[in-house]
Design goal:
This protein has a 3-stranded antiparallel β-sheet with strand order 1-2-3. 53% of the residues lie in helices and 2% in strands. It folds into 2 domains: 81 residues, no CATH class; 207 residues, no CATH class. The radius of gyration is 24 Å and the shape is elongated.
Length: 360
């Protein structure tokens, strides 16, 4: 939600209080949530909300799991509305439960979903988006690297559905035919490779957290973020220690307008990198590193396939009213190919050397 720089402006809805915010669609100045919900502003807020719903449904692409998340999200909107309005069981003519209203409604049909919502639900969702409180309705994301094998005292050998299989299914699938380092390079690797890899993994973990695990859907933005955070990926900078590699990426995050995060977030990312490097608890110690690098590789491939289509406006930029802050440039295909080669190098090194745990 955009704030008003000139604090002398009066609310354009109630005409009494000082305006604090600006509607991103009609540019009217308003002072509070009550004014934002006023009937005179209803058409504007409903229009924007409908676009948000369409974007979310379009993004789901008919996937059953995405549709389930959409339904849960709408239920949370309904709960937020009831809490804010103090609704209780004694209210006259209560609206049917959201689940009842959406029964038989295809969540791929934006108009049908829109028609099933009450006016309050439409307005409340819009307000949450504009206030930046979307975390109240978006389910939390648990990073895949938080998974680990469950070491059982007794387990049948090669039994279907074993703990190994279950835990690996939660991680990004490894690329096929990863070369060993000896197949890729004749010279032994420099000691700085492990520190450079830490710099790359920090950038990846930060971007994965930033997009709540949905970075593949925003491939070009994700690649831009990795380039901004990792000086090793961007310009081949070499690091002499793990601490230097981490501090470099954290500093880049601070200096980046759209990625800047709190100290708590940066500490979380450092812990995430440690989890990725240490890998599962008992075996496959390089598995998380290979999974992360494979995921980066696929993001770059997706961005490469989307290169040249950004003129229509990316789905990421459409979700923000301040387009200028998120109008990220398309990474040239030549640069994307170079980055792919670098990730192939790290995959080969990790396959050969990362079984020996190194620490940060």
């Amino acid at each position: 939600m955009e704030t008003v720089e000139d604090q002398s402006k009066t609310c354009g809805i109630c005409k009494d209080n000082r305006g604090k915010y600006v509607c991103p669609r009609c540019n009217i100045v308003y002072c509070s949530l009550a004014c934002y919900r006023a009937d005179v502003h209803l058409q504007c807020s409903e229009s924007f909300y409908k676009e948000c719903i369409e974007e979310e449904i379009k993004h789901g692409n008919g996937d059953p799991e995405s549709q389930k998340e959409m339904l849960n999200m709408l239920k949370r909107v309904e709960n937020e509305e009831d809490e804010s309005l103090g609704v209780d069981s004694d209210d006259d003519e209560p609206a049917p439960e959201l689940a009842e209203r959406l029964a038989g409604v295809s969540l791929d049909d934006a108009d049908a979903v829109w028609d099933a919502l009450t006016e309050e639900e439409r307005r409340d969702f819009m307000v949450l988006l504009q206030k930046g409180d979307v975390s109240q309705i978006v389910p939390p994301w648990t990073p895949w690297w938080k998974c680990s094998e469950e070491k059982k005292l007794i387990e049948e050998v090669n039994s279907p559905g074993s703990s190994n299989e279950n835990f690996m299914e939660k991680c990004p699938r490894l690329l096929e035919n990863i070369l060993s380092f000896d197949e890729l390079c004749k010279k032994p690797p420099s000691r700085c490779v492990q520190f450079n890899l830490i710099n790359v993994l920090y950038a990846y973990a930060y971007i994965a957290q930033y997009f709540a695990g949905d970075h593949l859907s925003f491939a070009m933005e994700a690649v831009n973020g990795i380039l901004m955070l990792s000086c090793n990926i961007r310009n081949g900078y070499n690091y002499g220690s793990a601490e230097e590699a981490i501090e470099s990426a954290a500093s880049e995050a601070t200096n980046c307008q759209w990625l800047s995060g709190t100290k708590e977030l940066k500490d979380i990312i450092k812990t995430d990198v440690k989890c990725i490097i240490e890998g599962p608890k008992h075996t496959h110690r390089n598995f998380f590193i290979l999974s992360a690098l494979s995921d980066i590789y696929r993001v770059i491939l997706r961005a490469k396939s989307e290169s040249g289509k950004e003129s229509e406006g990316s789905s990421f930029a459409k979700k923000f009213s301040d387009k200028s802050a998120f109008s990220l440039p398309a990474v040239p295909k030549t640069q994307l190919r170079t980055i792919l080669k670098k990730i192939e190098f790290y995959l080969a090194w990790s396959k050969t050397y990362a079984e020996d745990v190194f620490s940060i």
